[in-house]
Amino acid sequence: MLRNTLIILTLLFGLFTQAQNATLGYRIEGDVVVFTFDPRDYYEATEDGTHDRLDFEDLEIYKVSVSGQFNNWSREGWVMKKLDTNTFELRKKLADFTDEFSWEFKFIVNNRYWAEPSDDKASNLADAKEGNQWLHVYNLKLYTAQIDDEGNVDFHLPGYTDAHEVILAGSFNKWNEHAFKMKKIEGGWKLTLSLKPDVYQYKFIVDGHWMHDPHNPEKVINEFDTYNSVAVVTGKVTFTLEGFNDAEKVVLAGSFNDWNEESMTMTHMDGKWLYTLDLPGGKHHYKFIVDGKWMTDPQNPVKEYDYKGNINSVKMVQ
Known about the structure:
The protein is mainly beta. Helices cover 0% and strands 51% of the residues.
């Protein structure tokens, strides 16, 4: 079952169309994918090799592994840790995956029985075919965004109250046309996401019609000669220069303020010079100006030449 000859057909009929169901099998926490297994989510298991079905409650579980496209459907490689009676977990860094963002996977119990996801529980189901038999698998999508009512970015589309459905699609979810359904609120539509600092492009899909955000003046032309709206998500970054207690003035200058020599005067506190600002994700060059003298950050070993041949300190915001 599920060997290299396995034909994976991603039929996302269940994925995103059953909003009342949960995404099972995994969650993403920062830069970590957390695979989760709870035997109470399963009714049946399929025996590897014979394809015989049995009731899940008849299994005495002593080992659970994650098996999928990302590990060549290994039965034993990604063994989960048992946290309590009904919880198994395995944590993997996003860096453990390649640049592909969509994967199929399942859980295998005792190196022998494949746990069969149930239609009425999981929303992130796909179908796989081996021979003449169709089998459910989970779909793992490594988006940089997560729907979160307590998230840091609100997307709001006023009006369109007669629309049946509004979808938010963008570079943060590979422009998926189904994944992020917006919530209808009084006077419009809204969705809140957790997003890392970066510059994102996005559009709304109103009953199948793609449109840029009419209330966001920031937009760029795309390959279809229409517009994508642009959202700049920033994160708070504190620059610190230790020592130099006798200095009269220390200024922070960098690519983020066009190397302005006056606009960001640092504050002296407890033997350190500090300045906090919001920056978008990515690479930023900077220097300190101590009483008129330019210098790189002595506590930061990461430095680069700019196009003028100057050496600058580098701050990565992620």
